[in-house]
Amino acid sequence: MKKKYVFLLIIILLVLLFQLVAGFIKKDIHPHDRIGNLDINLESNKLTIYGEYRLGSFVGKSMFPSLFKNSTSIDIVPSSSDKIYIGDVITFENPNGKVISHRVVNIKEDKQGIYFVTKGDNNYLKDSYKVRFEDIESITVGVIW
Predict the structure, then answer these.
(1) 26 part of a folded domain
(2) Can you tell me the distance from the alpha carbon of 10 to that of 61, in angstroms, rounded to the nearest whole number?
(3) What is the pLDDT of residues 28-83, one digit of tens each?
(4) How many domains is the chain partitioned into structurally?
């Protein structure tokens, strides 16, 4: 009888743990579906993506192995800061005036408002500056290698 309760308790704890982990994944790192199935059309040798997208290019190695140097990105321009999520790859101008693409690893707020903490996937450290919405040029929603 005691073994039955212990087994039942373990099952309940595993279910709760799974729900907790699934909740984190869904909220914090799940990529957002920005290109729907109806936005894509494939005909014989032509791929068309309908919507307001633009093409970009990666020039550095900071996002390797996720993104390769000279790969082409499909980008959107976000309409507001609440359209940017943890896990997004954003292209922005850093304080030195250099345009770079890094992943959002955290979203914070200070007296000046919301800012994004970024990091290149191939970098050991997070970027040392705060990325504000007005610095952001686009969000990468697809990559062509």
Answers:
(1) no
(2) 45
(3) 444 567 887 788 888 888 888 888 888 888 888 999 888 888 888 999 999 999 99
(4) 1
